[in-house]
Write a structure and sequence with these properties.
Elements lengths: L3 E2 L29 E5 L3 H15 L10 H9 L3 E7 L8 E9 L5 E10 L8 H15 L4 E6 L4 H10 L3 E6 L18 E7 L20 E4 L2 E7 L2 H8 L1 H18 L3 E8 L4 E8 L3
Parallel strand pairs: 5-6
Antiparallel strand pairs: 1-2, 2-3, 3-4, 4-5, 6-8, 7-8, 9-10, 10-12, 11-12
Length: 287
């Protein structure tokens, strides 16, 4: 199993922003040393990852969370735990991801990635992309070719990264996947989730830009055989501007539109068309 992943100057985005930056921001200097992704080793390192997760997710004591014993058990039984560190400091991760071995009903094995978090000060700098590619390397080394994970459909930055950068495909909508209400920073929000399948044997390919038109949140239209659905680019700002009731109504409309689209199509792209709006593209399911 690969022990360490080091960055060059990759292009693309990570899960926290639309535009990637080099792994070290320009002008940051060399004092902190290079960024690398390593397998998480030992209880102390796992406890530090749990601490990062709690901080990034804004968890309350009542929200529950991870613990090092669970992570150790996952790692010892087919799971993957990787963390990003800066310089020689291996005590304070700036990013963390874990996945576990899963099986389809037909017996196919894959990795299910439950979590990937990046420290707030390092978001938008390529750390998330390094973590996902570290998961990819280790999954392939284990003889598997697919990773699956879930994300909130209205988190469009994550959507762009998952679909346009990595080349994942949205195949399923799971309404209320984790119950009626989220936790941490998502308290008060439904837990609808898209499931993404990342075929590690397939190279990500560019998709067309959304049609040029005056889009509005929740609007859908056809683009040839593809279906397009517009969503707020920043859900937190939309909710603050319109209020919880209007946001909940739009959530409901989007849930219905996504569910209908996925009966015949798969999600392949999510691109920002204005500062306030992004547009999903759904293409016909392969024969």
């Amino acid at each position: 199993m690969p022990a360490e992943t080091r960055p060059g100057t990759p292009a693309g985005t990570d899960g926290s922003g639309w535009a990637d930056a080099p792994a070290r921001p320009p002008g940051a200097g060399d004092a902190a040393g290079p960024l690398c992704v390593r397998d998480v080793e030992g209880p102390a390192a796992m406890a530090a990852c749990v601490g990062l997760y709690t901080e990034v997710m804004g968890l309350r004591p009542s929200d529950g969370g991870l613990n090092p014993r669970l992570l150790a058990a996952l790692q010892a039984n087919g799971g993957i735990l990787v963390a990003a560190y800066e310089g020689a400091d291996r005590t304070r991760p700036i990013g963390f991801a874990y996945s576990f071995l899963a099986r389809e009903t037909d017996g196919e094995l894959f990795q299910y990635s439950q979590l990937a978090v990046v420290a707030g000060s390092r978001q938008g700098q390529g750390v998330g992309r390094l973590l996902k590619h570290a998961q990819r390397d280790r999954t392939l080394a284990a003889g598997l070719t697919r990773i699956r994970w879930a994300y909130d459909p209205v988190k469009t930055r994550n959507a762009h990264f998952n679909l346009d950068v990595l080349g994942g495909r949205v195949t399923v909508l799971k309404p209320s996947m984790y119950g009626d209400e989220g936790f941490g920073d998502d308290t008060g929000e439904p837990t609808d989730r898209f499931l993404v399948d990342w075929d590690l044997t397939r190279t990500a390919t560019a998709t067309p830009e959304p049609p040029v038109r005056a889009w509005s949140p929740g609007e859908s239209c056809a683009d040839g055989d593809d279906l397009m659905i517009a969503v707020p680019a920043r859900w937190d700002l939309y909710r603050a501007a319109t209020g919880m009731r209007a946001a909940a109504a739009l959530r409901g409309s989007l849930r219905e539109a996504f569910a209908e689209a996925l009966t015949t199509h798969v999600g392949v792209s999510c691109r920002r068309v204005t500062d306030d709006l992004a547009v999903y593209r759904f293409s016909p399911r392969p024969e």
